[in-house]
Specification:
9 helices; 434 Repressor (Amino-terminal Domain); alpha+beta; six-stranded antiparallel sheet; about 290 residues; elongated; about 35% helix
């Protein structure tokens, strides 16, 4: 009984790595996404084909670009769908060529001593293996080309994951986003979010910035290179401040976000940072 294709194994390994960057358990992933705990277990262990949107959402929750995993997903999807079997070359023996002189013999036949027992069979196997490797290479190039075309418009303008045909529908918009996590709401996907001003490096080396999503019409704060106990708070006039505290070492190794402030008004936004064990603030305006 054959095992899973290498493309599917590689994708599952990439998904497990991305999940570890989120610092979330399977139960936490189920709570924050549209996929159940048992589904995530099957996706991460290669037991079940994973939806493209699940790959995108997982990357967004980890704060990482999705391009590499989506390219792997394209290759794995050809195996799940059976398209790979139709694109591989047939395995029937190659036609027997007439005898050739030493001056015209191919490199493959030159490796087989003249008169050796089974030389013709070896020659055929070499040809078949060469055809198979070439066919797999063509499939891989085609899949990567398809991914490139999806990531760039027909006119050459980048579209990335902003295309509504590829992205999950945003989970909220405007005031409905107030207090919600930008990751499971799919507001922070690449192509949907911008930084309001440059990132700020704090006195302790922690980095922070204000983020804004036009698709969701909402803002939030982001922190990374942090320490356990660090805190950021994002606020705007007339709204309730939103904050996040770094509570574990898993949080220090990835991006962490405040809940969102809903609304399209980006003026007056302020992000304040409090280092672990301190009471003073370092504040930055949008």
């Amino acid at each position: 009984m054959t095992g899973p294709a290498p493309e599917c194994v590689t994708l599952a390994e990439g998904l497990r790595e991305m999940r570890s960057r989120t610092g979330l358990s399977l139960a936490a992933l189920a709570e924050r996404t549209a996929y159940s705990k048992s589904s995530w277990e099957r996706y991460l262990n290669g037991k079940k084909p994973v939806p493209r949107q699940a790959v995108e959402v997982l990357c967004a929750m980890a704060g990482e670009p999705a391009g590499r995993l989506l390219a792997l997903w394209e290759l794995a999807d050809t195996e799940w769908s059976g398209r790979a079997r139709h694109t591989r070359p047939p395995t029937q023996p190659a036609p027997t060529s007439p005898p050739t002189s030493p001056l015209t013999s191919s490199p493959a036949s030159a490796l087989v001593p003249a008169g050796a027992v089974g030389a013709t069979g070896v020659h055929r196997r070499v040809l078949r293996q060469g055809l198979f490797i070439a066919g797999v290479g063509v499939v891989a190039v085609a899949m990567l080309a398809a991914q490139s075309l999806r990531s760039h418009g027909a006119a050459g303008s980048p579209t990335g994951l902003a295309s509504p045909t590829l992205d999950p529908v945003p989970g909220c918009q405007g005031e409905a986003c107030d207090g919600k996590d930008p990751k499971p709401m799919a507001c922070g996907l690449p192509g949907r979010v911008d930084s309001l001003g440059p990132p700020h490096r704090t006195s302790t080396g922690t980095e922070v910035e204000i983020r804004y999503s036009k698709v969701c019409a909402a803002s939030w704060g982001r922190i990374w290179h942090s320490k356990v106990g660090d805190m950021i708070e994002v606020s705007a006039p007339g709204t309730r401040p939103r904050r996040v505290v770094i509570r574990s070492t898993a949080d220090t190794d990835a991006y962490r976000f405040t809940p969102m402030i809903g609304g399209s008004n980006r003026t007056g936004l302020r992000l304040c940072f409090t280092p672990a064990g301190a009471t003073g603030w370092e504040c930055f305006d949008s």
